[in-house]
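Severity: low
Component: inverse-folding endpoint
Summary: output formatting inconsistent between runs
Steps to reproduce: submit the following structure tokens with default settings.
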């Protein structure tokens, strides 16, 4: 069980940031690989549609530069990626979705003996799969909306509005809010995608989206950011287009959640439960929905939260007195001070003759 730190403990937070900056001065010459590229559908969308200044990779690069860290953005879709990434002291991944956020990149880094920021294989895999995460939530008695799974067999429309989701998708990509039976089949098809994935059918729960960020500090304590409420002004729900905000319309606002103290306490308690229950580390963000009758429901856990300047996660950190660079430094510190794996695997040796298996067309 981790010890958790409340966002109002200014003295402890100030002490932790002081430790981080002192640690940074003692570790000159760090080489950081920021992994970012169009790997998943979510990352393809952001790399093609999102303005450069609004991307997490841009904010991460600026913070690393301000820290005086030598870094490079590595594209995991390039043949040279695996050989190049082994030349760095630590990996800071900005990938989302399959192969980036779901434990597969994390497993590769473990095998290559490259430290990386954030959760390990199992926690990343479960958090990234909405169906598996739902099962864990129920086991941990964290309330979540009713749900069922569609695997391609005939499925009945039950009459109530539902959210149809790709269980491996992020940023609401492939997600559809369905009110009527006539739109149900097409929503299932969209969520299944070309890979014919299983689909999560979740009861639609109207309310206020609330997020809770968590960050592991050098003391080993986990700082819990103040719960933030997201208000969507021009969409029925927080869909992919709204999250992307490619036109910078500002149709979303984020602010500390003005909820009954008992609700805030429950949200923080559920976040602690999920951190420990999933075995998260480094950083994470838990997304909730709070109804008009003050009932809270956990929707998902993000082990790689967005790090753009205006993201919910960064906003929560700022409310605790942390800068973007403080958060980045805490992530790097956790990765480099974590006990490394000690198993009998050979260190990889690369040559110019190393073959690269192309993905099947």
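Observed output (run 2 of 3):
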């Amino acid at each position: 069980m981790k010890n958790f730190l409340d966002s109002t403990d200014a003295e402890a937070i100030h002490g932790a940031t002081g430790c981080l900056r002192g640690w940074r001065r003692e570790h000159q010459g760090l080489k950081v690989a920021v992994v970012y590229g169009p790997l998943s559908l979510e990352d393809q969308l952001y790399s093609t549609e999102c303005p450069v200044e609004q991307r997490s990779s841009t904010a991460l690069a600026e913070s690393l530069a301000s820290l005086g860290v030598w870094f490079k953005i590595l594209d995991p879709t390039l043949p040279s990626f695996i050989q190049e990434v082994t030349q760095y002291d630590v990996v800071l991944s900005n990938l989302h979705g399959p192969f980036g956020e779901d434990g597969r990149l994390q497993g590769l880094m473990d095998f290559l003996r490259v430290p990386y920021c954030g959760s390990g294989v199992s926690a990343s895999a479960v958090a990234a799969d909405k169906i598996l995460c739902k099962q864990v939530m129920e086991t941990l008695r964290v309330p979540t909306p009713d749900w069922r799974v569609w695997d391609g067999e005939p499925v009945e429309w039950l009459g109530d509005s539902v959210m149809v989701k790709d269980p491996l998708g992020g940023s609401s990509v492939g997600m559809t809010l369905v009110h009527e039976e006539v739109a149900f089949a097409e929503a299932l098809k969209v969520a299944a995608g070309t890979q014919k994935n299983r689909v999560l059918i979740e009861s639609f729960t109207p309310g206020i989206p609330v997020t809770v960020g968590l960050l592991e500090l050098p003391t080993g304590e986990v700082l819990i950011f103040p719960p933030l409420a997201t208000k969507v002004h021009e969409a029925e729900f927080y869909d992919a287009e709204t999250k992307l905000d490619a036109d910078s319309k500002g149709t979303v606002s984020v602010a500390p959640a003005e909820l009954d103290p008992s609700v805030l306490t429950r949200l923080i308690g559920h976040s602690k439960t999920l951190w420990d229950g999933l075995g998260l580390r480094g950083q994470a963000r838990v997304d909730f929905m709070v109804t008009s009758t003050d009932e809270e429901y956990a929707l998902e856990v993000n082990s790689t939260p967005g790090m753009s300047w205006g993201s919910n996660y960064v906003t929560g950190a700022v409310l605790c007195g942390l800068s973007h660079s403080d958060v980045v430094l805490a992530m790097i510190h956790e990765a480099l001070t974590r006990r490394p794996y000690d198993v009998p695997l050979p260190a990889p040796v690369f040559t110019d003759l190393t073959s690269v298996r192309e993905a099947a067309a």
